[in-house]
Amino acid sequence: MPTRLERNIDLLLSVHRPAVLAHLRSIRRLHPNATPEQLLAILERRYVAAVTSGGAAVGASAMFPFVGTGVSLGLSAVETAGFLETTALFAQSVTEVHGIAVDDPDRARALVMTLIMGKAGSDLLKQIAGQATGGLGRNAYWGQVVTSSLPQFVVGPVADQVKKVFLRRFAIGQGTNAVGRAIPFGVGAAIGGVGNLMLGRTVIQSARSAFGAPPITFPEALAITIKAPKAAKPVEETAPRKGVKRILPRRRQAAIEAPGPRGAGPENETGVPDIRI
Fold it and tell me: What does the pLDDT look like over 249-268, one tens digit per residue?
């Protein structure tokens, strides 16, 4: 019977397909001219930025005096859950771009756990799947094997064996990172950010080797409708307001010679000059 930890990890590693499709379509709407290869590059940048900032943020919390070791370890547990969920979304997004729909939770979990373990995980999966099916094709990508070509009746046992190794490796790695994040004076932020960055790069390299070259076109499930931009309305020339015409003569009338002091004129002996305003 699976433990509570195993059930929580299983829940985090399986993302529902509608959420994955909605995520990919939203990115496509922001970048309607992006090719599948460019979309995969966008997914990789977003994934690395998300996991790196999450690890650095938890490590930076150790700088505050009111954050003790217990609170820091609790935040590390929350960040670990976020890392697993983000990795699951990234893995299934890459799978959808390659035209492979993953509806089975066991296949999704086996894929994510293998990606996180890197080359060791892919070698383990090939070995287990080869033993269960009698051997894998030489040209078969392991990502396609676990998500589509592996028979359904062996998916569960293969996922269970991969999970045993994954839990042991992941617990050791994340335990070390959690202790490092708890170090104050900004050291924890560096350890958390660098640790997640290295792990995120491992996941990306594993994803590239799992499915091979990007496809040329998008699958039908990722099709979007691009609305044509609205035509600009012609600018109508407006006639000048009547009030402007009424004001201008008054301004011209204001610029006249003001009469001088009383008694000024040809007969004024003081000869005070006229003033213009």
Answer: 555 544 445 455 555 555 45
